[in-house]
Predict the structure.
Amino acid sequence: MNGMGKKETSFAAKLRVLMLAIAIGAVMFLYACGGDTDSTNTARQYPTGIGDDIHKQLKYDSRVQDYTEDGNTLYVNVNDSWMQSPPGMRERALGQWYSLWQSAQGKKDGLKIIVQHEGNTLDSWSGEKGFQPAEIKKKSSAAHEAS
């Protein structure tokens, strides 16, 4: 009987260690996969109240130097950051500005936003044509025009 008792004790000890390892693993799994209440979104966001006001949004946008209104046209002067932005980001920003400006103006017809850089007209957005990207002349066509 002595031999039998040692085997059971050895088996029980191994089982106890295995159960302890499973319990520790389960606790670690639950801790690692548990819902974290902290937000991991570190993207820069507009402060409250900026998203619905075109004037505040233009003032907050680091790509915008200044802007002026002339009748139904909003002129937005931008810096080099705008020039380095991909066309899709520029189109999205202009579309958002247009919809905000349109709602601020009472959804009048004939509204237009013109983006300028160093006095040159770049992109524009109007109700009739939508987004109009800057026309970039090719160097070869400019050389042909000069000759």
In short: Residues 138-145 have pLDDT under 50 and may be disordered. The beta strands are 64-70, 73-78, 112-117, 120-126, 130-132. Residues 54-135 form one domain.
